[in-house]
Amino acid sequence: MRVGKIFKQGRHMTESSFVNHMRANASRRVPTWELLLILSLPPSSPTARGVPTDYPAIAMSSSDLENPDQLVTSTNPDHPANLIPSLCAKFWTLGWVTGTGGGCSIREDDLVYIAPSGVQKELMKPADIYVLSLAAQEASLKNRTYLRSPPAYKPSQCTPLFLAAFTRRGAGCCIHTHSHWAVLVTLLLESAPGDGKLFEMNNIEQIKGFGRGFQKQGNLGYHDTLRIPVIENTAHEEDLTEFLEAAMDRYPDTYAVLVRRHGVYVWGDNVHKAKTQCESLDYLFQLAVEMKQLGIPWISDIPVVKPTRI
């Protein structure tokens, strides 16, 4: 039985449903970690950062697992351990994760699946994926512990930035690319006035691909302005975390943060939204570079046109 399914069942499991669960699984030996989850799961609760999420606040350790590899073993193509290699292979063809750069992480309830550091993204396999429990981490998200760590690789330096999207925004997926269009946009913004750099664009159809903001319903419209903050790059990826968090605080409705001369982080409520927003953003970045070459401003004043027929 998949861990995610256990989490979903455990939130509302009564004594009678627990008995039924055990009867249904009488033919197999129920591992200790599964019993702990079922008996101990509390209702969903806020994280230490104060953002409501849908995962239970129970700390799960690798000692609760008889075989940690079961976390990344599934025939379901939509399982995070299968999705991450598939997505990264696609991103590699787009030039987003060249030379082992970039990454992707998916949250399923309390479990977080993360692409490793230093692996060629087009060759990644489910067995290469790291897994951790959000509830088992310190509030600072430092000194992280993993439920599963593949021996051949190192944890991604992007991990604390992914976790910031999960804990601060309740995201289900976060993608980091080294798209050259994203980098070019940050270069174009270097000469912009002020300390806080900001990518802004309106009156472009693809803007509709973005949600209105954190805990808001619906998507942006054609005439709305998309705003993506830019943060300074650092020598080490993990050091970007506090700057990304500050950008989230300053622009609470953003679904992405650009990193100067580096790339972009994009997140969404689920894999579908994170992926489509990342695709939409890359399209807009390319368009922005070409508009700049043609002398066309990113912000324009176009009147709203309404139909005359009712």
Describe the structure using short key phrases.
eight-stranded mixed sheet, globular, single chain, 310 residues, L-fuculose-1-phosphate Aldolase, methionine biosynthesis, amino-acid biosynthesis, alpha+beta, metal-binding, zinc ion binding
Describe the secondary structure blueprint for this structure:
Blueprint: H1 3-10, H2 15-24, H3 32-40, H4 80-93, E1 103-108, E2 111-114, E3 130-133, H5 159-169, E4 173-177, H6 180-188, E5 198-202, E6 225-231, H7 241-250, E7 256-259, E8 263-268, H8 271-293
Helix pairs in contact: 1-3, 5-7, 6-8
Describe this structure in words.
The chain has helices at residues 3-10, 15-24, 32-40, 80-93, 159-169, 180-188, 241-250, 271-293, and strands spanning 103-108, 111-114, 130-133, 173-177, 198-202, 225-231, 256-259, 263-268. It is globular and about 65 Å long. It has an eight-stranded mixed β-sheet with strand order 3-2-1-4-8-7-6-5, sandwiched between helices. Helix content is 30%, strand content 13%. It is an alpha+beta fold and 310 residues long. Helix 7 links the parallel strand 6 and strand 7. The chain starts with a helix and ends in a 17-residue tail after the last helix.
Helix-and-strand structural type: alpha+beta
CATH topology: L-fuculose-1-phosphate Aldolase
CATH superfamily: Class II aldolase/adducin N-terminal domain
The poorly predicted ranges are 1-23, 26-53
CATH class category: Alpha Beta
Overall 3D form = globular
Radius of gyration, rounded?
21 Å
CATH architecture: 3-Layer(aba) Sandwich
**Mean model confidence by pLDDT:** 85
Spatial sequence of strands, sheet with the most strands? 3-2-1-4-8-7-6-5
The H-and-E topology, N to C, reads as HHHHEEEHEHEEHEEH
The N- to C-terminal Cα distance equals 55 Å
Counting DSSP E segments of at least 2 residues, the number of strands comes to 8
Amount of beta strand = 5-15%
Largest sheet: 8 strands, mixed
Oligomeric status of the shown chains?
single chain
Q: Helical region count?
A: 8
